[in-house]
Amino acid sequence: MLETSYRTPGQLIQALLDARGWTQRVLAAILNTSETGLNKIISGKQPLDAEMAISLSTVFDVPAERFLDLQKSYELAQTRLVFREDPEIEKRARLFGTLPLNEMIKRGWLNVDSMKNFKVIESEIIRFFDASSLEDVEVFPHAAKKTNVAGDATPTQLAWLYRVKQIAREMLVAKYSLPSVTDAVERLKPLRSSPNDLRKVPRILQDAGIRYVIVEKLPGAKIDGVCFWLREDAPVIGMSLQHDRIDNFWFVLRHELEHVIQGHGRTVAMLDAELDIEDVGTDAIAEEERVANQAAGEFCVSQKALSAFIARKAPFFADRDIMGFAKTYQIHPGLVAGQLRRRLKRYDRFQAHLAKIRSSVAPGAIVDGWGDVAPVGKN
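Structure (tokenized):
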């Protein structure tokens, strides 16, 4: 039985020849090939191809794969002797595998002309994340956390948050005070009845000292909104409008406003995702989120009145009943529909009432996305 410690296909072929008492000339004659070419294969000067491997398999009853595996292993070993591995490959793989760089470049977040210009990409990422080096960029493992986002935020979500922060830093708003925010909540209430009135929302928030930013979410990132503070008197609310619906808009906005009112997000950025399907009052979420959810639900629809409405009308909710209930409380029917969906856990219902709002709120707001790039100077 032949040994298996051959390093090259040539060594195996020579061992097979020796075992049969054949010369290379005899094998060349059997294969009907050039003796010189066969000698080059055996000596390792010429690679063995698939056709030769199959021919040798027929002659020696050895699987063709064995000859080819030896050839590949030999070539790999030879290459490793002379190959100088690019130390930047691992770094590039980490970057492109962690962040949606192509999307960030396309949306103007990174000033990069070519995806092959890694030095520029690296410096732009450092700038974007306000870091001193690539190792300090927060989205990578072992980097120091600067935003201290609650929960397990993904690198893509953090990139979105940093874009909100960049834009918010350059905004000019009125002086912040807690009374100004509570007053803003009261000023927002009359706007709940019509999508067209949402154009007034950004100005009301700015007058209250809140930096309000709308940034389209990055692909694959689930984000509704965020609340954090640039400094003690500078709250920021960012929204993605990932669900272009009047019920979601008001629920998310009031949720983030409650974070501001309660002082949440001063040390830990409150990044909120999938608020659309979280249960109001559930014990499965943090206390800060539960408080914000309760305030948001109450703002959209009086929860006591909604409970009474459900008790009277369940299990059938006619459109005329929803519209009548909304008219009584001077709110848009979409807010009633949205809260019913949450209460009933039936997100497939009442969709006809869920008016789109992005085209109404965007003209008065600072918007980044959907083809627009917010004007942000380099740090």
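The beta strands are 211-215, 225-229, 235-239, 270-272, 366-368. The chain has a mean pLDDT of 91.
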